[in-house]
Amino acid sequence: MSSPSSASPPSAAPSLNPKVIGVSVAAAVGGFLFGFDTSVINGAVDALSGEFALGAGLTGFAVSSALIGCAVGAWFAGSLANRFGRIPVMVIAAILFLASAIGSGLAFGVWYLILWRVVGGLGVGAASVIAPAYIAEVAPARYRGRLGSLQQLAIVLGIFTALLSNALIANTSGGAAEQFWFGIGAWRWMFMIEAVPAAIYGIMALFLPESPRYLIGKGEIDKASKVLLDVTGEIDVNLKIEQIRTSLEREEKESLRDLRGQTAGLQPIVWLGILLSLFQQLVGINVIFYYSTTLWRSVGFDESQALLTSTITSVMNIVATIIAIALVDRVGRRVMLLVGSAGMTVSLGLMALAFSFADTSGGADALTLPEPWSTIALIAANAFVLFFGTTWGPLVWVLLGEIFPNRIRASALAVAAAAQWAANFAVSTTFPALAEVGLTLAYGLYAVFALMSLGFVWRWVPETKDRELEDMDDLQLGRAAR
Question: Does residue 455 have a pLDDT over 90?
């Protein structure tokens, strides 16, 4: 088993070229739309529910329907990226975002809204696959963690921007159900405003260079050389091309044309990516962002306090991601994931304990939490966000972009991302039912998954810091990887 230190180093370590920062930021705009699109409905849900006279079940499906599109978009994005390139998939995702923004805003019935939300989900799923794959393939090894973390930073900025734009539109119009510009309902503008960043993303994508590893796989060596020299900042371009070509040829000889293997039908490295994705969602992070305002109102906060608390939590998530960017290429992926899992286990356990003291005499929708447990729950929830935001949030995207061999990277990442969206859908749709039984059960279950993630990282996840993508071909899993 070769350890990270024994991996063959590049002939020369390239410096951080400003151009690679620029193209990574541009690619990560897909992550911004990812966060914006999945969060924007929160401010509109009550108004559209009233306008379309929706029951609780249909309202819940309208909220979560985008996640179905996310899973489908992620599943097919990999094969499309392998066939047509990374950049065309970005452009397709931008078109889907643009169509969804306008279609959702102009929807004249709930099923039309759901249809356009699914279309937007297809764009989110595609962006969740293509951005980390592209960034990993253009970034120098020693900066790949920081540049890969831009995806998560863009996601949390998108979430925050959606919350902020929703609040501004609602406050300006007097409420999400009121009329706004041109006599159109404010909640409709909450969706349509996404057309602006969607158009910007599409235009930026048209000017991005194609991934050098994709170009080499297609035999376009001159174009790949130019990208490696001008964008990646590679010093010995010929050597790097030969390393990439050897990696691709070796995978071809080993018949790594798909993801099949002897471990339950898939290669072990693919299972590693799937399990990383599942654990990222099964700890319940999106419960905090999808239901936080409702949660804090249920424990005694008024509407403005609950909204402020949710906004503060979103800002904290941004700060946590910036901290992760600063640490990931210095500390390493594995150690940070272990610390994150331990911290999430404790904080979620405290939340479960705190809600065991809740007074539910008024029913599940009117529970109250006495002091000091309401304060403990608030601190624990934000500690959970902090531990997640500095570790599992950004690092899973970094690892998914780098752990897979060159030839299967896009396809394997697509499968892992699809699993992530499926888990997101499962957690988001089951939380209300779990909460009716008791929030102690819900957060206790998430704490168990956080503890399981600790054991999973300790046993199976290797360190990938400073490894070239071509060295990932020899990546082995298990205790020896430490």
Answer: yes
